[in-house]
Specification:
InterPro entries: CoA-bd, NAD(P)-bd_dom_sf, Rex_actinobacterial-type, Rex_DNA-bd_C_dom, Tscrpt_rep_Rex, WH-like_DNA-bd_sf, WH_DNA-bd_sf. By secondary structure, this protein is an alpha/beta fold. The protein has 3 domains: 70 residues, Winged helix-like DNA-binding domain superfamily/Winged helix DNA-binding domain (Arc Repressor Mutant, subunit A); 112 residues, Rossmann fold, CATH 3.40.50.720; 36 residues, no CATH class. The chain has 8 helices and 9 strands. The protein starts with 9 loop residues before the first helix and ends in a 20-residue tail after the last helix.
C-alpha cells in the first residue's frame, strides 16, 4: 500500500465500512492475517469484488498469506477519513436522540459525540449521555467550541416536521455532513452531504422479501440477493 488510492466508486466506498467491521472483529480475536476469501465471506461479498475494491486502495495481499489485518484496517480507516476522531452532534433529544447519545459504541469507531441540542425548553438543560442538552440558539457558539476545525457530523433525530429547520440551522452554522433519521427529504445547498436512515423503508423492504419468501415452497426467497439492501451494487 504505497500509493494514493484510485478514485473510488460510490459502491466501493459503501462497502469499505463493512470490510472495516470484519477486520475489527478479526483483530479482536487476535487474527493477524486473513485471506480474501475469508474476509469476503465475513463481509457478505464475493471475493473477486473484494479484491478489486482493495486493489483500488493499493492493497493486493500476499500470495499464500493474505492481508495483514492491522495494516489493512489502518488503510481502510484512512480512506474513510477516520485517521482522526470525528466530532458528532445530535439534534433532537427524544427517544431516538437519547438512545444515540447513550450508545457507547461510537468511540470505538472513530466518532465522539460532543454535543446535544433540542428546541424543547423542558429538555434543554438536561444531562443525557454525559452531555448537557443545549438549545438550538446556542448551536453556532457550541459548535465553535466542540468542533473548532469545522468538521462536525450532525445527526438529525427530530420529528419529520422539525427536520428541515434543524438542517437549515446546521448549514448556517457551518455543518456540511448530516445523517438524517427523520422520515423526510432534506433540501440542503450543494456541498452539504446528507445520508438518510429510513427505518420505515427498510421495514417495507423486509416485508416485501417476507411476502415473496413465504409464497414459495420451502420458504425460498423469490427476490434473491439482487434486491437485498445488504448488498451494494457494483
Amino acid at each position: 500500500m504505497t500509493h494514493e488510492p484510485d478514485r473510488l466508486s460510490d459502491a466501493t466506498v459503501l462497502r469499505l465500512p463493512t470490510y472495516l467491521r470484519a477486520l475489527a472483529e478479526l483483530e479482536a480475536r487476535g487474527v493477524t492475517s486473513v485471506s480474501s476469501e475469508e474476509l469476503a465471506v465475513r463481509s457478505g461479498v464475493n471475493s473477486a469484488k473484494l479484491r478489486k475494491d482493495l486493489s483500488h486502495l493499493g492493497s493486493y495481499g500476499v500470495r499464500g498469506v493474505g492481508y495483514d489485518v492491522r495494516v489493512l484496517a489502518d488503510e481502510v480507516s484512512k480512506v474513510l477519513g477516520l485517521a482522526q476522531v470525528r466530532p458528532v452532534v445530535i439534534v433532537g433529544m427524544g427517544h431516538l436522540g437519547h438512545a444515540l447519545a447513550d450508545f457507547g459504541g461510537f468511540a470505538t469507531k472513530g466518532f465522539d459525540v460532543v454535543a446535544c441540542f433540542d428546541r424543547d425548553p423542558d429538555i434543554v438543560g438536561r444531562r443525557i449521555g454525559g452531555l448537557d442538552v443545549h438549545s438550538m440558539a446556542e448551536l453556532p457558539q457550541v459548535l465553535a467550541r466542540v468542533a473548532p476545525r469545522g468538521d462536525a457530523i450532525a445527526v438529525i433525530a427530530t420529528p419529520a416536521a422539525s427536520a428541515q429547520g434543524a438542517a437549515d440551522d446546521l448549514v448556517l452554522a457551518g455543518v456540511r455532513s448530516v445523517l438524517n433519521f427523520a422520515p423526510v427529504h432534506l433540501a440542503v445547498p450543494q456541498g452539504t452531504d446528507v445520508r438518510k436512515v429510513d427505518l420505515s423503508t427498510e421495514l417495507q423492504l423486509l416485508a416485501f422479501h417476507a411476502m415473496h419468501r413465504d409464497a414459495l415452497p420451502g420458504g425460498a426467497s423469490s427476490a434473491g440477493s439482487d434486491l437485498s439492501t445488504s448488498e451494494v451494487p457494483s
